[in-house]
Amino acid sequence: MMGAPFALSVISDGRPAPGDRNYQRRFEELLEEARVADRLGFRGFWTCEQHYAADDGHLGAQFAALAGLATSTSRLRLMTNTLLLPLYQWRQVVEQAVVVDLLSGGRLEIGVAGGGNERDFDMFGVDFHRRGELMERGIPFIRQGLVAGELADGPGGTLLPMTPRPVQERVPILVGGLSPPAVDRAVRLGDGHLAYDYERFEENLPKFWDSQLRPAMDRHGRSLADFRFTATAPFWVSEDPERDWEILYKPAYAFHMGQYLKRYRFRTAQDGQQYVPPGVATDFRREDVLVDTPENIAHRLLATWRKAPWHEFSFFCRLPGIPHERTLEHLEFVAHRLVPLLTAG
Q: What are the beta bridge partners of residue 77?
């Protein structure tokens, strides 16, 4: 992606088509999708996780998946987006992260978040209301293990060695979450922030940048020179976007959003107002998501990036229901048709 003003990466949750239970084939396809993305020059390949009511084959074990991707690719940056850190034993996070970094030759990035589904916490036996506290303690803990090679988890908090060591001197840790406390935590403790929006991306990302992320960076003396800003949104580039939206992308997107809504119990924010994450509408319209021609996508992305200058934009490699072969064709199309327009713009 040389010459483009921002990097392009892909993200996958590993889900097959609705009703498909051939999980082995889906993971074989996942490896091929990563190899193609690697060859085409995308910056990274990201994974994500779900646990409660994951009856659709959604990926749950991200480090295991990234270890497989590490041995199937040669240059892609590999990232969890996001690992729900409060649910895990932190030494095990460090140990597994080191293995992926070693297998990949130093290509791992770790994205973490506090999580928003209370039932996930019930499953793992973790108090949902402690997730902020656990993030505050967990991020420095895994940073210490990855950088210093020792962890304060011995008797009475004494230091114990952490080996083997990763290839990278500093494995990047990016932090997700859209609430003000989560954004502030990302800027204080992380190497970057993982923003997302599932609908009206062009409207919501600039608002998020202006009202939350940029003020937090100013508050803590961070800048885009030392803090990585990433953005994720639905995205499909086509010569005939109206056709692809109706027969291909809209059904897959509706299933994706339906599963999202099914799993999440939306909480009440501290100010007493109901907090509803982006992308919860059910009357899906093409104009609200990035499904368009290469020329229009380039224009829309660049116009939004000028208002919210992210370093990296990621899109779902394959929503459930989009065939594997169409996914590979789409990756080729993005690399050969869209990227030159971004570079020229």
A: 44
Dihedral pair phi/psi, residue 334, rounded to 5°? -60, -45
Q: Does residue 265 carry a pLDDT above 80?
A: no
Calpha distance 261→329 (Å, rounded): 29
Which residues, in sequence order, are bridge partners of residue 80? 47, 110
Q: What is the pTM of this model?
A: 0.93
User: For position 1, what pLDDT does the model report?
Assistant: 59
Residue 282 has pLDDT above 60, yes or no: no
Give the DSSP H or E segment for 196: strand 192-196
Smallest Cα–Cα separation from 43: which of 334, 291, 326, 260?
Answer: 334
Q: What are phi and psi of 92, to 5 degrees?
A: -65, -35
Q: Parallel, antiparallel, or unpaired: how do β-strands 77-84 and 44-47 relate?
A: parallel
Hey, what long-range contacts does 249-257 have (CB within 8 A, 24 or more apart)?
A: 249/291, 249/319, 249/322, 250/284, 250/286, 251/321, 252/319, 252/320, 252/321, 252/322, 253/284, 253/289, 253/319, 254/284, 255/18, 255/319, 255/320, 255/321, 256/316, 256/319, 256/320, 257/198, 257/282, 257/284
**Number of separate helices (H) and strands (E) present in the chain:** 13, 12
Determine how many CB atoms are found less than 10 A away from the CB of residue 21: 9
Strand partners, 268: 274
- Arithmetic mean of pLDDT, 53-82: 95
pLDDT in tens, 234-251: 999 999 999 999 999 999
Q: Looking at residues 5-25, what average pLDDT do you find? A: 96
